[in-house]
Amino acid sequence: MTRRMLAALLLSIPLAACQTLQGGGTGGEDKFTAAYLKTHLKPGVTTSEQVRQLYGKPDTTQEGPNGPSMWTYSPRNTANADLLSSAMGAFGLGAASSLTGAAPADSYTLFIHFQNNKVSDYSLSQI
To answer: Of 29, 44, 92, 97, which is most buried with the most CB atoms under 10 A?
Structure first.
């Protein structure tokens, strides 16, 4: 009985990580799609704190005299991606992108520009 519970727990970790990574932890939405960006990053309205709540700690930051001037995010650099890769590697399942059919996660970078601690502009760049 204990072995079955342990096996079920170990098998659920990569599956939970897959769902979290694909959905960005927000009910199945991908945080790097044009639709998500348009809905959640409103120039002149969305604050830097709200961006941090949506995306977490930025990969890179540029500070201006009145707060942040630009932050960048890449799906590859999220904690969820690291968790998924670790979980998949532990089970000998290979790369997460090969299982999900997703494009390489490091092929996108989100640039968010701020003015007075509010989003002024953003762009998603494919590398």
So the answer is: 97
| Report for 4-18, 42-56, 83-97, 99-113: range of highest mean pLDDT | 42-56
Beta pairing class for 118-126 and 60-64: unpaired
Q: Which residues, other chains included, contact 109 with Cβ-Cβ below 8 Å and sequence gap of 6+?
A: 72, 73, 74, 124, 125, 127
Q: What CA–CA distance (Å, rounded) separates 106 from 74?
A: 6
Q: Name the helix (H) or strand (E) containing 12.
A: helix 2-23
Task: Assess contact for 72 and 55: CB atoms under 8 A.
Answer: no
Rounded Cα gap, residues 127 and 109, in angstroms: 7
Nearest to 85 by CA among 13, 28, 27: 13
Q: Which stretches does DSSP call E strand in 1-127? A: 60-64, 67-73, 108-115, 118-126
